[in-house]
Amino acid sequence: MAVTMAEISKLRKLTGAGMMDCKNALNEANGDIEAAKEIIRKKGQAVAAKREDREASEGCVLAAANGDFAAIVALKCETDFVAKNESFVALTKAILDAAIAAKAADIEAVKELTVNGSKVANLIVDEIGKTGEKMELGYYEAISAPYTTAYIHPGNKLATVVGFNLADTDYQVAHDVAMQAAAMSPIAVCREEVPADVVSKELEIAKEKARQEGKKEEMLDKIAQGRLNKFYQEVCLMEQAFVKDAKQTIAQYLSSSNKELKAIACKRVTLNEE
Fold first, then answer.
1. CA nearest 72: which of 54, 55, 93, 56?
2. Helix (H, G, I), strand (E, B), or coil: what is residue 262?
3. Which residues neighbour 28 within 8 Å (Cβ) at sequence distance 6 or greater?
4. If we measure between CA atoms, which residue out of 134, 158, 132 comes closest to residue 55?
5. How far from 48 is each of 123, 124, 272, CA to CA, in Å?
6. Which CATH class is domain 5-50?
7. Gap between the Cα atoms of 241 and 201, Å rounded
8. What is the pLDDT of residues 189-217, one digit of tens each?
């Protein structure tokens, strides 16, 4: 039976696939819309299998905050052309919105979420079928705090979320700190959160450097501790110099807004090489 333009348009609206893909799928399915949808999905699975060894180094990174919960989603693909495609960005946003609504705990939970009647994992396969590129849910980060904020850097390659201890945190102050996290790449909010193996490595590096500089062996621990403190000032959000005013730290900037205000959570995701 010949398929009609109305049927093709309906299938295209349901799947987002190209006109010819929809026509071919409908012809194969003898006009059965549901069967045609499955044919298009299987095409996506086939493309995904063929491109499994390809590198998905491009993509779209989006973030959002809703009260006490904020999250970042990075959907990865092969080319910048697809990354900027309206459909791809819309899919990333739909996944993020679903994750925020469900307060998803981790990336595996996000894959199991349902968006418009389909699991996220299946939606990604469908998008693969449309574009012919490898795609994957590359990163997912989430935080909970009395107040949260999100920042997306122009270009959708970098995003941050930051949580604060006070529910009435000023929006602009929070936004400034989220931008700080984007610009200065902190690895922790405070020094107590820096992983022990990172601290040990930095101490050893500092000792070895001091040793090569000819410092006395009995002075190495003290010198290394001083250099570790400088390291903390570079990588801990609360101790970093504020990019808008280097005369004060982020801790001091927050205190100037409210003496009790502190950042208590921070996540940063980027697809850019650093």
1. 93
2. coil
3. 36, 39
4. 134
5. 12, 10, 24
6. mainly alpha
7. 23
8. 999 999 999 999 988 888 888 888 878 88
**What pLDDT shows up at residue 54?**
65
Domain 58-189+261-270 has CATH 3.30.479.20: yes
Q: Which two tokens stand for residue 97?
A: 């919105």
Rounded to whole angstroms, how far apart are CA atoms 40 and 260? Answer: 55
Place of tokens 């100037």: 256
> Measured between alpha carbons, how far is 172 from 164 in angstroms, rounded to an integer?
13
Give the DSSP letter of residue 2: P
Predicted confidence (pLDDT) per residue in 77-99, tens digit: 999 999 999 989 999 999 999 99
All CATH 3.30.479.20 domain ranges of the chain, comma separated, are 58-189+261-270
Give me the sign of the Cα torsion angle 12, 137, 72, 180.
negative
Helices and strands: H and E segment counts in the chain: 11, 10
Whether 70 and 177 have beta carbons less than 8 Å apart is answered as no
Q: Residue 176: pLDDT above 90?
A: yes
Residue ranges, comma separated, of all CATH 1.10.8.10 domains in the chain are: 5-50
